[in-house]
């Protein structure tokens, strides 16, 4: 047993009971000719639309129910805990529903991280991001269409930096929050983990949804929690006020940096991608 482990660590992976999928091509023009590709785009668009519709309605509903000037109760509504559950729960539901069709990204930062890890091609990554952003804009647009007065009064669910925090703090919150999410995505979908823990059924959308839930608990008071550029863009476009646009760069730069760090950490540190590429850190494997 020890010998087998040693051989595996040295780079002879013949004894693996799992198979890593081959890296996706950088540019795969053939995808554009397949219906499955466009079906995946539709799935990403609809999933992001539904995600924004439910979550932004939850945010606005809570603000209205807790608005003392409107006769609300300070302890009314779902509270921050309920908002976090709405975001995490919707991600769990939508990833579960779409994972077999598009991979269930529903987030440009997740798509970016998977692209860096060569899980998706450049064409698919770009088109996914476009579909996600359009879906987010349409989802928030539906919220405004149904509840225009509340939407405008309570900020449209738009992300912005909370009073008392500087831009560096907000950027750091978005980087770390997105790192947690994308790291969880990689870990939950890792074929090595699935093989090793095959006796323990792991439903990948569950830890991903919980990651979103936990990050929202931590960062709602700071930035309202972006960790998803499409979510932030959709609300900013429909609400269209100065404050969300002034801080908007944070909700793109932060998530993309966090996703890149998570991709590097998982692929090159935890999965030893650099070691596999070089063969070994040791100059002589017999030493």
Automatic annotation (TrEMBL):
Recite the UniProt keywords alphabetically. Answer: Membrane, Transmembrane, Transmembrane helix, Transport
- Spans traversing the lipid bilayer: 40-62, 74-101, 121-143, 202-222, 249-270
Pfam families in the record: MIP
Superkingdom as given in the UniProt entry: Eukaryota
- How does this protein lie in the membrane? Multi-pass membrane protein
Q: Where does this protein chiefly localize? A: membrane
The protein's GO terms of the molecular function aspect are: channel activity
Protein name in UniProt: Aquaporin PIP2-2
Originating species: Cajanus cajan
């Amino acid at each position: 047993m020890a010998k087998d482990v040693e051989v595996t660590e040295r780079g002879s992976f013949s004894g693996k009971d799992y198979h890593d999928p081959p890296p996706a091509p950088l540019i795969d023009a053939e995808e554009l000719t397949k219906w499955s590709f466009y079906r995946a785009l539709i799935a990403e668009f609809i999933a992001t639309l539904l995600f924004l519709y439910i979550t932004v309605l939850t945010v606005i509903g809570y603000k209205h129910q807790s608005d003392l000037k409107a006769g609300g109760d300070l302890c009314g509504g779902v509270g921050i805990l309920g908002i976090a559950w709405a975001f995490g729960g919707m991600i769990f539901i939508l990833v579960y529903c779409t994972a077999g069709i598009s991979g269930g990204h529903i987030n440009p930062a997740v798509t970016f991280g998977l692209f860096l890890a060569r899980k998706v091609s450049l064409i698919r990554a770009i088109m996914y991001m476009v579909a996600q952003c359009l879906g987010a804009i349409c989802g928030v647009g539906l919220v405004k269409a149904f509840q225009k007065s509340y939407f405008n009064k309570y900020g449209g669910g738009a992300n912005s930096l909370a009073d008392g925090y500087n831009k560096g703090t907000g950027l750091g919150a978005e980087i770390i929050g997105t790192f947690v999410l994308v790291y969880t995505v990689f870990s939950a979908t890792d074929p090595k983990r699935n093989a090793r823990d095959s006796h323990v059924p792991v439903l990948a959308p569950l830890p991903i949804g919980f990651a979103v839930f936990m990050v929202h608990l931590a960062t709602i008071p700071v930035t309202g929690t972006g960790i998803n550029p499409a979510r932030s863009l959709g609300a900013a476009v429909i609400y269209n006020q100065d404050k969300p646009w002034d801080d908007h760069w944070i909700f793109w730069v932060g998530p993309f940096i966090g996703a890149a760090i998570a991709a590097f950490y998982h692929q090159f540190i935890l999965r030893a991608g650099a070691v596999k590429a070089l063969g070994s850190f040791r100059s002589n494997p017999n030493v």
